[in-house]
């Protein structure tokens, strides 16, 4: 029997993980996540109108950044961060100084397992991060034919052998030190001919680089409950071009290879940007712009994250911290 005076165990990776949340609204959804998120630091990226006040429930350790902060911190390089699209979350990836990132959308809630117990998705992600992935492709759907089975978001059923993976930005964790510079969610939303393909773009790029450098990827658990806050018809208009372009995009990424001298994520990503410009630029001029933004992203990442030293929180200007 445990000693009643014993100190509660420290949450896994308490000081090594940031939670990144993109939002345009008050973060009441955090109340449901409080038992699981409260020990961790939150980086909130406010999308849309920077003059709008975003309310965060009391008791959370957080910093809040809006478009003004992005422009002030990155200057001309701020052009690589999307506006009016959840792709703005990658600014939080760039700001963080922690080893790991968990990112979640503000319309995602705690799911329950078949017994009715609440699922601590963050803890499951952390356990995934701390254990090696299998070296072989496996069924991410587990047993999809069992009663009550779910299907994984963003999963393609007709992929040929070089498999991408079903990455969804609303429920994602990764080793920032290992793969962070590749987690660029592209140019989406306001001023761009496409939106909502941000996590798929990042997933395609990341998988090419992970395969090249020998990094592992896991998909499947943990589950969350997604109560979509956006309008599906508006979403379709944003995704319309991507539906056609992906007929070119998916084969491009499945055949993409990187030279042996690409030994870092940054070098891999710059090389991939060159291939995007050469091979996808002819699909639409947008991809030339996106390829340039990929380079800008890496330059901005390296400025904020010098290899020899990490900037302290005091060196990050503006934004509100609590």
UniProtKB/TrEMBL annotation:
The keyword Cell wall biogenesis/degradation belongs to this UniProt entry's keyword annotation: yes
Locations listed in the record: Golgi apparatus
Pfam family, one: RGP
GO molecular-function terms, A-Z: UDP-arabinopyranose mutase activity
Keywords attached to this entry: Cell wall biogenesis/degradation, Golgi apparatus
Single Gene Ontology BP annotation: UDP-L-arabinose metabolic process
SUPFAM superfamilies referenced in this protein's UniProt entry, alphabetically: Nucleotide-diphospho-sugar transferases
Domain of life: Eukaryota
Matches recorded under InterPro entries: Nucleotide-diphossugar_trans, RGP_fam
GO cellular component: cytosol; Golgi apparatus
Entry similarity comment: Belongs to the RGP family.
Protein name as it appears in the record: UDP-arabinopyranose mutase 1
Lineage: Eukaryota, Viridiplantae, Streptophyta, Embryophyta, Tracheophyta
Gene name per UniProt: UAM1
